[in-house]
Amino acid sequence: MRVIDVRGLRKEFTVRVRKTMLRREKRVVAAVDGVDLRVERGELLGYLGPNGAGKSTTLKMLTGVLHPTAGHVSVCGFTPVPQRIKLARRIGVVFGQRSQLWWDLPLRDSFDLLKAIYRVPGEQHAAQLKRCRDLLDLDSFMDTPVRQLSLGQRMRGELTASLLHSPEILFLDEPTIGLDVVSKQAVRGFLAELGARGDTTIVLTTHDLADIERLCSRIVVIDHGKVVHDGSIQDLHLRYGSRRRVIADFDVAFTYPVDLPGVVLESSTGTRLVFAVDEVGPLAAVLAANGSLRDLSIAEPEIEDVISRLYQTPAGQVG
Amino acid sequence: MGLVTATVDRLTFRNFTELASLTGAIAASGFRRFSTYRQATVASLVTNTMFGFLRTYVMLAIVGTAGATLAGYTGAQLAGYVWVGQGLLGVVLLWGWNDLAERIRSGDVVTDLMRPIHPVLSYLSADLGRAAYAMMFRFLPPIVVGALVFQIYLPKDLVTYPLFLISVLLAVIVCFACRYLVNASAFWLLDHRGVTMFWLFTSGIMGGLYFPVHFLPDWAVALLWFGTPGPSLLQAPMDIFVERDGVAIRVGLIGIQLFWAVLLLWVCTVVQRRAERKMVIQGG
Ligand SMILES: Nc1ncnc2c1ncn2[C@@H]1O[C@H](COP(=O)(O)OP(=O)(O)OP(=O)(O)O)[C@@H](O)[C@H]1O
Ligand SMILES: [Mg+2]
Q: Which of A212, A245, A273, B54 makes an SS bond possible with A299, Cβ 3.0 to 4.6 Å?
């Protein structure tokens, strides 16, 4: 079932630029420039792009708080802006830099209030809350006012708050921003578990590439408001020809010439050779048979490399 | 009213009870949130009480020179008017509410819009909870102090008490709507201090805070009551409390307040809708 259907989505902002002391010029900038996006139920989608690419602007339009300039948007079968209040019941949202909790109230009270606002039946609320408390370790600060929580604690509270009404789609805009390694892992593990259950669709925006590798089966990359990639991480590696590396260490310098299809020698110090490969097997066999092989390690391609190459490609001239 | 129909699809009985429990829950949270600001409550109590003394002495001096009554008030009624006013100041919260404007400026207002409830309704509910707290802890203490030190007029008719409570409720709603509109100007003006200043200057005078509006010429009094929400903010509950007029007029004052409450809430929903249509949320 398709839960998000976006076609030709566009958002223009009018900015006033100061030219001289007296003259100000109006300029129209397209923050989102013709985005097409279809998301099926249960997908865990990474929505990526460099700073200012238009990610947050897209999410605001999908959640109904910002009017699109043009294009068709349907989320859970609703048109977000006119049907915002109905849609709000079906989606959960976390904006990493904002809080949806009540500053002066303990987490527990915030959760109770959300139960009333979303009219969540008692048992459902209790079950969801229990799950979040266990997975996100909330118990030690359930009674602390939100303003006294650390960023990581608050973020776990935010995630819980966005899930208490069992939303069909969860929109997360940089949920791991500013978190330490442990908190990040807690959040990631939680999202992975949620994604694996398959009933919640997750749209995740992040600059943390570990989030993406761990969580997202599909990534959509936008730049200057346009989609420049839509597919899996493997697709991305394929497209940019990024390959795995084999690092081989020898006791004595290795001189046997390697000439295998799909294998490129990247560097050699005599006793340490680095190859870029499509398949490890044939190379490993040659190395083991023709030298004093001591150690062999395989490095997966760096997602950071491909992403940075993608970001540097001018929009519109992809691949 | 748009406010209600936007929240509940059809106003059935079940929907109505759900709506009531929802607003009740938000109001309860408003009560609790406000109760965490104890120091602020104490500080404003001290200030309001101090000004109560000053204003009572001024009023009594004026009545003293003018004879037994002034603009329909006896000395005791004027003292009552002063102390009820000092107490209600924190209940209707004439000044110092800029939560919404701050949230618009920072862009946090986006989280208000993510909720399945109309923002005007949710802010109003929270404000009613706050007002309930203020009624206990900011209204009663000044009245008690005033009653102990001065001879202040206390209601003689039993019916005045419920009338007064209804009038206070409506005053809170009218004041909330005015504050909401003043704050909502931040949707259009990045600097809305001018609007806030205008509200600060006019609300106290037109609301009858500094002196009863009845001190003014009749035409001005009529203009204020019927042409502005001012007297509905404070003058109405104060006049009802000191029983300046007969029961019929007291009920009439509540009618005027009701008119302003409905009108202004409606304006709030219209303004909110406009704002959302052209809104640009600040920050990423
Ligand atoms: N309220 C606004 N007024 C004018 N321009 C805006 C406004 N909000 C966003 N923009 C512009 O739109 C573009 C996209 O912004 P957006 O916040 O969507 O980026 P983003 O992809 O979320 O970036 P980041 O990774 O830094 O969060 C930027 O160029 C930004 O300057
Ligand atoms: Mg952003």
A: A245
A283 lines ligand 1 (CB under 6 A): no
Query: Is ligand 1 within 6 A of the CB of residue A264?
Result: no
Mutate to test the pocket of ligand 1, among A28, A48, A55, A212 (most ligand atoms within 8 A of CB): A55
Tell the CATH superfamily of the A2-238 domain: P-loop containing nucleotide triphosphate hydrolases (3.40.50.300)
Whether residue A232 contacts residue A242, with contact meaning beta carbons closer than 8 Å, is answered with no
Cβ A14 vs Cβ A204: under 8 Å: no
> Residues 48..107 of A with a Cβ closer than 8 Å to B: which?
56, 60, 63-67, 81, 84-86, 88-89, 93, 95, 97-100, 102, 104-105
Q: Which chain A residues contact residue B29 at CB under 8 A?
A: 102, 105, 109, 113
Residue B2: inside a domain: no
Q: Kindly state whether residue B1 falls inside one of the protein's structural domains.
A: no
Residue A217's beta-bridge partner residues?
none
- Higher pLDDT, residue B22 or B254: B254
Global ipTM:
0.79
Model pTM score: 0.85
Query: Nearest bound ligand to CA A48?
Result: 1
Other beta carbons within 10 angstroms of residue A135's beta carbon come to 17
Domain with CATH 3.40.50.300 in chain A: 2-238
Alpha-carbon distance B94 to B234, whole Å? Answer: 9
Report pLDDT digits (tens) over B203-228: 999 999 999 999 999 999 999 999 99
Give the model's pLDDT for residue B9: 45
Q: Which of A56, A84, A119 sits opposite B113 (nearest CB)?
A: A84
Domain that holds residue B272: 10-281
Candidate from A94-98, A239-243, A290-294 with smallest mean pLDDT: A239-243
H-assigned helices in chain B = 2-7, 13-35, 38-66, 75-88, 99-106, 109-113, 119-134, 140-149, 160-184, 193-206, 218-227, 230-233, 235-241, 247-278
What pLDDT score does B2 carry? 43
Q: CB distance from A119 to chain B under 8 Å?
A: yes
Nearest ligand, CA A60: 1
Q: Mean of the pLDDT values across residues A84-106?
A: 91
| pLDDT value at B5 more than 80 | no
* A240 at interface of B, judged by CB pairs closer than 8 A: no
Q: Is residue B3 part of a domain?
A: no
CA of A52 to the centre of ligand 2 (A): 7
Q: How far apart are the first and last CA of chain A?
A: 30
What is the domain count for chain B? 1
Q: List, for residues A298-318, the tens digit of each pLDDT value.
A: 888 777 777 877 777 665 454
In ligand 1, which atom is closest to the CA atom of A60? 18
Q: Is A167 in the pocket of ligand 1 (CB under 6 A)?
A: no
- Nearest chain B Cα distance for residue A118, angstroms: 7
**Residue A319: per-residue pLDDT:** 41
Strand A169-173 vs strand A44-48: parallel, antiparallel, or unpaired? Answer: unpaired
**Residue B191 included in any domain:** yes
Interatomic CA distance for residues B49 and B143, integer angstroms: 9
A160-201 confidence digits (pLDDT tens): 999 999 999 999 999 988 888 888 888 899 999 999 998 999
Task: Return the higher-pLDDT residue of B284 and A149.
Answer: A149
B244/B235 Cα distance (integer angstroms): 11
Distance (Å) from CA A55 to ligand 1 centroid: 8
Q: How many CB atoms lie within 10 A of CB B253?
A: 22
Fold of A243-300: Alpha-Beta Plaits (3.30.70)
